[in-house]
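User: Fold this; tokens only.

Assistant: Input:
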Amino acid sequence: MERERDPATIELLKNLRARLLSENISVARVAAYNLSWLQEDGLTLLKEALFGDYPKTAKKAAAYGLRNMKGRMKKMAIEVLQQGRESSDEVTREACAKSLYLMENKPKRKMKKQSPHSAKARRKIKEVPSKDMKQKRRFNRKPFNR
């Protein structure tokens, strides 16, 4: 059953689809990432780009978008990537295999240890007030009301 979409959603999907099919891989990847948040609509467009007759940048970006699917669509995205691994197109096959590999072996990010000599770790040297300043402060105080 096809659900009804408002004109703003249709315009957004057209815009993302056009950017997904871009020759610039960075633009295509950002569009694929944004499509990964759009559930069924995103899955449909990413699947179309992956299996259609499109440039290799679009296919690689689509595999990236499928890899980043979250929630209930993740299982379907994995199935699409597994189908793509058996594709006759070499670019599709390689992009899907790499995405599946990266999903299984997610690299762990290491936190950088902060050097004791780094700018953030060093404390600022505070000025030591002179004896004259201490006397001036003492006389500049407001009188205590009794």
